[in-house]
Write a structure and sequence with these properties.
Glutamyl-tRNA Synthetase, domain 3
């Protein structure tokens, strides 16, 4: 747990993460506004200064730690599929939950980093052209 907290705080210090103090009920209400908003963080706590955020956390106000995503969609070269660009910008996803536990996706990345994992093999199922369903 200390390793995950340490890495999350490094991201906070470098401005690559931020604390979110939004109560879960507020986030749930935002998700219900429209289908397109489901699962997308509104950005309410993005504008908090580092000082204000640290003060709130020191006072014991429950919070999560979220990744500060780039507002433009990610583009990279995939070794298998070539150039890849996401259609939408990445959400400001949660790294550390309000109970202090890391999300699986954050813990997995930290674990791989510490074990010096350089490549991850993934599988993809592609039907032969004669079996592909149009549309």
């Amino acid at each position: 747990m200390n390793l995950y907290r340490e890495h999350a705080h490094q991201l906070l210090e470098h401005g690559q993460a931020f604390r979110c103090f939004c109560p879960p009920r507020d986030l749930t209400a935002l998700q219900g506004i429209s289908e397109s908003a489901a699962g997308v963080y509104s950005g309410t706590c993005l504008g908090l200064s580092a000082e204000e955020s640290a003060e709130k956390a020191a006072c014991g106000i429950p919070h999560t730690i979220r990744f500060r995503s780039n507002p433009t969609p990610v583009e990279f070269r995939d070794v298998v599929y070539g150039r890849y660009r996401k259609r939408h910008a990445e959400d400001h996803f949660i790294l550390i939950k309000s109970d202090g536990f890391p999300t699986y996706h954050f813990a997995n990345v930290i674990d791989d980093h510490l074990m010096r994992i350089t490549h991850v093999v993934r599988g993809a199922v592609r039907a032969p052209p004669c079996l592909e369903v149009p549309g």
